[in-house]
Task: structure prediction
Amino acid sequence: MKLLSGADLSRYERKKRRSRLWGLAVVVSLIAAWIVGLNLAQADLMPAVREAMPQAERFEKATSDVYEAYAGEDLVGYVALGEASGYGGPLTAAVGVSPAGTIEKVVLADHRETPAWIREVRDAEYLDSLSGKKYSESFQVGEDLDGVTGATMSSRGIAQAALNGSRKAAQVMGLPVQTPPAPRIEFGVPEAALLLLFGIGYLAQQRKFKYKKTARWVSLLGGLLVLGFLYNKPLTLAYINQFLIGFWPQWQTHLYWYLLIGGIIFVFTIEDQNPYCQWFCPFGAAQEVMGAVGGARVYSPRQFRTFLESLQRVLAWAAVVLALVLRNPGLSSFEIFGTLFSLTGSGFQFILLGLILVASMFIKRPWCTYLCPLDPVVDFIKLTKDWIEDLWQTKIKTSEGK
Amino acid sequence: MADKDQNLRRKIVPYILLALAVISTILILLDVIANLGQL
Result:
């Protein structure tokens, strides 16, 4: 191990102190953004209530989230606000229900989903497919309803919100509503693949393991195929934002979210390494495949290093602050993963994707190195972890000295 | 000749990277602004 000279040591200490001050400033700004977000006005849901029962002329509140809808003096139905977890956080649907308990119309009243995915849901006329269903029926996406490709979590959340809303309306009508069964634990191919990939990563990190390079490629290609192209479930900033805002979904229906976030934090704490980015990030893998084709190399331009690093960090910080202020995890999650894996995104995202894929043929992982918001998040976690360890060591030394 | 190529590459690549990062950032900002506009 190389020993640091006195000058190097003091430079290292200064750099460490500066990083920690920046870290502290980031924490303070995120707390401030969180508080501002909490105090921002809630969405006005009445336009969605009116849209869910267009024939009604007036609405009377029956309970806190169920409205009786009248045309003249006639009760024409009910509109209930149903909630559930989507991809980006809680979503609310205004559900128009006939006096017989049949859903007439579902309107997405409030959501935190990625706009491009919601466009997919609207284009697929998914909301209309919920009309005609009853509160007593099953709303399983894939079995009772056709989900929307590329927006599975959003379509599942909308279906659940519609079911919850129709049940609330049925209760007000005095119809027999059975207690909903406990949610089914969703453990499928993506969850199993995730555990397997964590396992491969753990095994390959062992010192005696000989086939590290092969294992890494197997892991990368597995991630690319399963977590990328088949299921479009890469880790995005939206996951982190959701965690920070406090939108923690039900573990039974969002097991993947917990396995991924929990797994990364666990491995980071035990092994001091981020297992995801280098081993099975599907977008990282896509760039490496392109790099293998074009012979990509690592470039680290010394004169712009600080600028590029700062740009990446400021982008990530601004995206998290925006998400906290607007209470919308997916809005500022600017990754182009969905653009590649489910061909969903805006024109800007497709241009960016093309640029990155071409660049990755010559530069090793340009997205990860210069743009990915998760890289600064990982740096921040490492900074915090090292700081806590330092404090702990100091505490031990102090207590030993006494 | 190879040295000349190497030198040229060493001079140009940082600027290409800088341009890539700046253009990408602009595209990202435009996309986020467009998303905000849809709220």
